[in-house]
Amino acid sequence: MSSNIHSVVIVGFGGMGKYHAELIKENNSLEVVGTYDVLEARRTDSAKAGYKVYESYEEVLADPAVEIVLIATPNDVHKEIAVRALQAGKHVICEKPVAMSKEELQEMLAAADAAGRVFMVHQNRRWDEDFLTIKKMYDQEIIGSLFQIESRVHGANGIPGDWRHVKAQGGGMLLDWGVHLLDQLLFMIDSKVTSVSSSLSFILGNDVDDGFEAILQFENGIKAIVEVGTTNFITLPRWYVKGIEGTGIIEDWSLTGRLVTRNNEGQKIEPKPIRAGVGLTKTMAPPSEGATITEALPQPAALSSSFYDNFAAVIEGTAEPIVKNSEVLRVQNLIEAIFESAEKNQVLKDFDMYGEGK
Amino acid sequence: MSSNIHSVVIVGFGGMGKYHAELIKENNSLEVVGTYDVLEARRTDSAKAGYKVYESYEEVLADPAVEIVLIATPNDVHKEIAVRALQAGKHVICEKPVAMSKEELQEMLAAADAAGRVFMVHQNRRWDEDFLTIKKMYDQEIIGSLFQIESRVHGANGIPGDWRHVKAQGGGMLLDWGVHLLDQLLFMIDSKVTSVSSSLSFILGNDVDDGFEAILQFENGIKAIVEVGTTNFITLPRWYVKGIEGTGIIEDWSLTGRLVTRNNEGQKIEPKPIRAGVGLTKTMAPPSEGATITEALPQPAALSSSFYDNFAAVIEGTAEPIVKNSEVLRVQNLIEAIFESAEKNQVLKDFDMYGEGK
Questions:
Q1: d(CA A174, CA A197)
Q2: Residue range A255-280: average pLDDT?
């Protein structure tokens, strides 16, 4: 019944909408047939790019040629656009963060269920090679079982753009970048989050956070530190992970990094004390020569298919979604716990939706 | 009444005792005249080094030629040795961590008061140049007012030595290294700690912590992260600090580092979006060319004198102690709060002794 190429209308033709249009050009499962945007300038952009320009959202929904609505608007209008699309019988791809609250998301998921249509959130950073390199290390215990995972994204530009400054539109760094970093961790680590503590940063004087730090403790013993900053003129490494046998680092998006592990073949030589500052230390002396091995990062893990191909296969009933809605709901719930922990300055426990709705 | 060279007996002639002996050779205020150690091998070391070897602690205390007892034993016996020395009319220099508990320290301070003798803890890392460089930045707001201070010490050797593994002797990294890093922060930042959260690491299977992380929130708005690890085969920077105008980093003990600040003279150019992983980001793009300035670290701040000279001057009544006992007690209290926060996995508030006993 379904063709092999599925038609997409992009709603919201800003930076992300245009980026989707470019990426879908390279994809064989989906095809962008048109766009809708409330701003005149973006309708002009779309026409120039050769897409059909819908004059109203009603027109999109009424067009039987449209199979999929892709939502790339500010966050506060995701819900209404998604629910109306689902009710009109369209499948929906929604940008992240999916919703303003867990309740909004639940409403969206109920609409998808009622309509029997596919709803999938574009958690595209599950496909990032830096993350998939860490995932390989985690799954295959390349530096031994990982027990500490630090995931940081640092910039010095403040919060760019317009609506990303505005609380009512779902701005702020916890929602914008936190949703990716948290989604990656929960996707990789199959264990319950037993506690979270966090703090938000408001250095730039916006009404939304310009950065945050959250510390997650998992039931399986892993501690994860997730940090986003937009006032960091020097960046700390994108990933810093500790395993039983060594440490791994990925400096940046270019996948510069290395593994340093204990050399179990080497002689056991006590390190020599060094003078560090005005004191002596053996504890913090560099390991003796030959005591460690430095290696290149492993190749990234591979996911079963691209986001768009997976979405098409789910529509066609031939695959399970890689980004499951129960996972997206769990991340949304975790984000709300992080906001609450920061506001109360308390460690939160017993909140995680791990295992629910699987 | 007092001579200008004060006689010292070192009690505990292990690594730190010997290090003191070497350092005091270069000092004009103090002179090591003898040592006492319970181990035969160390008595031999001391004799070889030309020091008088006391056969018992009683003999040290009974010797009127001894003005100062310097305690460099395991932590669990500091108190008894110190109290007996003070009661015998000696001044005392004590290694860190000063005591097993706040109560022990209070007993030591009461003995010093009762005897009218000087008791000072060797918090020598207040003189570390890396710390004094950060202190200069803090005091002079070189990258603007600092609002985040991250102080880390990472090693890969586990916990070396013998008694440092043993809880009953005051082992573990929070007591061994934490006491330095926390002392530095409280010495530098004149503000109350309003909350602390922490976790300890027990990866090596000792009965003491092999590392910890503590997050301190100060009343003046500063957030500090203090972390010690002994299973870090790759080290994160010794210091990472964020100010309103820029970021500073000190990589290691060799004072490799830099400042990167906003270029207020430069044109305001929006950064260009970059492709990072599979996504686009303007937020995390590097700042535009000319938007920042990179500078060398400033010269370290200077303290009024060396530890030993200050100790001698305090004995002579010509100076206030640089390491005040009220400060040492406050750090001990903070350490106990960090243990409690980690054990309960809670944020602790309303515990800081800021301003008490000043």
A1: 14
A2: 88
Q: What residues of A are in contact with residue B283 (Cβ under 8 Å)? A: 155, 157, 159-160, 164, 173, 176-177, 230
pLDDT band for position B358 (cuts 50, 70, 90): low
Domains of chain A: 6-122 (3.40.50.720), 126-255+297-301+334-349 (3.30.360.10)
Q: What ipTM does the predicted assembly reach?
A: 0.94
Of the candidate ranges A75-84, A217-226, B205-214, B271-280, the one whose mean pLDDT is the lowest: B271-280
Has residue A1 got a pLDDT over 50? no
Q: How many CA atoms lie within 13 A of B243 on its CB side?
A: 23
Interface test with B, best of A137, A212, A233, A264 (most B CBs within 10 A): A233
**Residue of B282, B284, B350 to mutate when probing chain A, most A C-beta within 10 A:** B284
pLDDT at A98 > cutoff 90: yes
What pLDDT is stored for residue B288 in this prediction? 82
CB pairs under 8 A between A and B: 181
A346 backbone φψ class: left, alpha, beta (φ>0; ψ -120 to 50):
beta
- What pLDDT, on a 0 to 100 scale, did the predictor assign at position B1? 35
Tell me the shortest Cα–Cα distance from A306 to chain B, in angstroms.
11
- By three-state DSSP, how is residue A218 classified? strand
CA distance B159 to B309: 32
β-sheet bridge partners, residue A217? A195, A223
CA distance B95 to A274: 19
Residues of chain B contacting A273 with CB distance shorter than 8 Å:
15
Q: B22 CB contacts (<8 Å, ≥6 apart)? A: none
Question: Over chain B, what is the mean pLDDT?
Answer: 95
pLDDT confidence band for A2 (50 / 70 / 90): very low
Q: Which of A129, A146, A86 is nearest to A110 (CA)?
A: A86
Partners of residue B278 in chain A, C-beta under 8 Å: 124-125, 127-128
B347 contacts in A (CB within 8 Å)?
197, 345-347
- Identity of the residue in B129, B156, B247 whose CB atom sits nearest the CB atom of A292: B156
pLDDT at A209 over 50: yes
Q: What is the mean pLDDT of residues B270-283?
A: 88
Mutation for A interface: B164, B249, B283, most A CBs within 10 A: B283
**pTM beyond 0.90, yes or no:** yes
- The two structure tokens encoding residue A344: 């109360």
